[in-house]
Amino acid sequence: MASIPATYLLYLSVLITISPTSSTSIIEDLNNIHPPPDFNTIILNNCAKNPSLRYCNNPSPDFSEIFKSTIVTNHLCHESNNTNCPDSFVKIDLQNRKKFAPLYLSFSFFWKYCPLTILSIDLSNSSLKGDFPTDILHCSQIQTLDLSLNGLSGEFPLESFTQLINLTCLNLSYNHFSESKISDTQFFKRFNSSSFVHSGLVPDYHEFQFKAFVLLFGFPLCVVLVVICLGFICFLRPDYLPLFLQSKYKFTPAMLKAATDKYSPTNLVAKIGKFEIYRGTLREGTEVRIEIYRETIPRQEYKKFVAECKVLVQLHQKNLVQVLGWCNHRGYKAVILEWREGKTINLWLLNSLPTWKQRLKVLRKILEGVLYLQEHWPEVGFDLTTSSVLLSKEGEPLISRFRVGDGNSNKKNIYKFGVLLLEMIANKQSKDFKQGEASLIEWVKTHYQENIWKVIDDRLRKTGITPEQADKGIRFGIMCAEVSTEHHFKMAQVYDIITRFYESTLISRSPNH
Ligand SMILES: *[C@@H]1O[C@H](CO)[C@@H](O)[C@H](O)[C@H]1NC(C)=O
Ligand SMILES: *[C@@H]1O[C@H](CO)[C@@H](O)[C@H](O)[C@H]1NC(C)=O
Ligand SMILES: *[C@@H]1O[C@H](CO)[C@@H](O)[C@H](O)[C@H]1NC(C)=O
Ligand SMILES: *[C@@H]1O[C@H](CO)[C@@H](O)[C@H](O)[C@H]1NC(C)=O
Ligand SMILES: *[C@@H]1O[C@H](CO)[C@@H](O)[C@H](O)[C@H]1NC(C)=O
Fold it and tell me: Sign of the C-alpha dihedral, residues 158, 160, 165, 171?
């Protein structure tokens, strides 16, 4: 390991003895000192013998610099209490050497040719200030580095440490490096937290553990959660899915629950036995009427129910309440319809005192709905009583009760319309009669001939219907409702007749209009 010949060391030791160990004199000496004439040859010989020496790798060596570094090497070797200096220079020990440590650090030529023998550097508690002394990193072979108990600050050159592959013992504790978390797991495997006590640097155990946790458990867990969430949304609240993924007419129990604010009593419109009507608001804001039949229904029935609903959602006419969808569940089935502000025809008759003209106008519009159903949906039956047909706020009558499979025929429809017409003239409901519609028809038939005003609604009379109009209306109503007679007219003709009645009210000058 001899890098400097013995003769030369003699010269150096003389030099050291003559220079006092005061820092200033060393610097002065170094500046004034010049390599002896044969120094170049000595270095070249050394390199020939041992090419791995640091200064041998330099293609154009600065011999004056190398000379100065050999002097510092010798000096520092003794200063560090190595025995057999400089051949066995294994450690730089400047611990607690507040005066010398900064000075030696400032000799960058020394660090540049850092002797390969040095395995340990201890600069702890020696008043180092400022940035990390990167010159030390030239000693890339070291195994131990202690910089603890100093005032080092600034960025810590984490990357440069990868080249110190033999470094196993590092101490940076008690410094003021810029606060940063060491999440570099490679670095962290080499040095644990006791190397960084109060150094400003925090080995980020937690981040490492967190990353491992995320990779091992978090990610699969997330996938599972996402799948569960999607499943949850699909089955319970499909209204949260993008529009193109939603099934248009199918509602889930959770959707109805949300729409009615958990079936809140304030949203309950009517309850008749197991049949409930709720007013609700869908997620996108549409107001709906939800009709629920709370009954345990056999599976087969459900299939029928859904098939029926699939027909009903296709009905589109302005005088029919729009069916929006359905919901089938083990405990109930529900139909969701558009919400229309309004009242039933019989309430309208009782409270609003409509004129004959107004009644005919409504009847005409009801017929438009009937014509549509008869023409396009012969399998769909419907109710035409004053208690089932609604009148919207805008004055539009709305047929609201349908039955798929019941069917509608011209004859049946004309009969139903006849009863409705009679109900609207008499202001009576067939359900108030003992035998329903038959009794109503019978009652009208027996009474209108003796005294027509006995049959006509008193309030209608006051609005100025003429006896002729009343007579025509009643007779047409009876004609329609007469099941036994084989009438040959069609629904379109009924519509024409009602239209004519209506137009005649526009010509005749009733006092109310
Ligand atoms: C250096 O060695 C001498 C004797 O070998 C000893 O007295 C002295 O305390 C040592 N100094 C340090 C800093 O270890
Ligand atoms: C650091 O040096 C001071 C003197 O400057 C000394 O009092 C102290 O004990 C030293 N600390 C350690 C841990 O060696
Ligand atoms: C690290 O140590 C090994 C064996 O002790 C040595 O061969 C190698 O050159 C050293 N690495 C450096 C960069 O000094
Ligand atoms: C840190 O490493 C040193 C040796 O490198 C070991 O003695 C010490 O127990 C370790 N401390 C922790 C907290 O792992
Ligand atoms: C680093 O130095 C500090 C202070 O002297 C000490 O408490 C700590 O144990 C040392 N850590 C290691 C890894 O040597």
Answer: negative
Q: What is the CA radius of gyration of the chain?
A: 52
Verify whether ligand 4 is closer than 6 Å to residue 197 (CB atom): no
The protein residue with its alpha carbon nearest to ligand 3, atom 1, reads: 166
Tokens found for residue 237 = 């609240």
| pLDDT, the chain, mean | 83
In a 3-state reduction of DSSP, which class is residue 326? strand
Ligand 5 shell residues, CB under 6 Å: 148-149, 171, 173-174, 194-195, 197
- pLDDT score of 61: 78
* pLDDT tens per residue across span 251-261: 888 888 999 99
The strand pair at 268-272 and 323-328 is best described as unpaired
Confidence tier at 184 by pLDDT (50, 70, 90): low
How far apart are the CA of 9 and the centre of ligand 1, in A? 22
| 379-402 tens-digit pLDDT | 899 989 888 899 998 889 999 888
Is 26:19 a contact under the CB 8 Å cutoff? yes
DSSP strand pairing (144-146 vs 120-122):
parallel
Per-residue pLDDT, 8: 45
Q: How many residues does the chain have?
A: 513
> CB-hemisphere CA count at 13 Å for 73?
29
Superfamily of domain 253-338: Phosphorylase Kinase; domain 1 (3.30.200.20)
Query: Picking from 140-144, 303-307, 328-332, which range would have the lowest pLDDT averaged per residue?
Result: 328-332
Q: Which residues of 168-180 are buried (b: 16+ CB within 10 A; e: fewer)?
A: eebbbbbbebeee
Please give the CATH superfamily to which domain 342-506 belongs. Transferase(Phosphotransferase) domain 1 (1.10.510.10)
- For residue 108, which of 76, 147, 136, 74 has the smallest C-alpha distance? 136
pLDDT of 4 reads 46
- Candidate from 114, 116, 140, 141 with most ligand 3 atoms within 8 A of CB, to mutate: 141
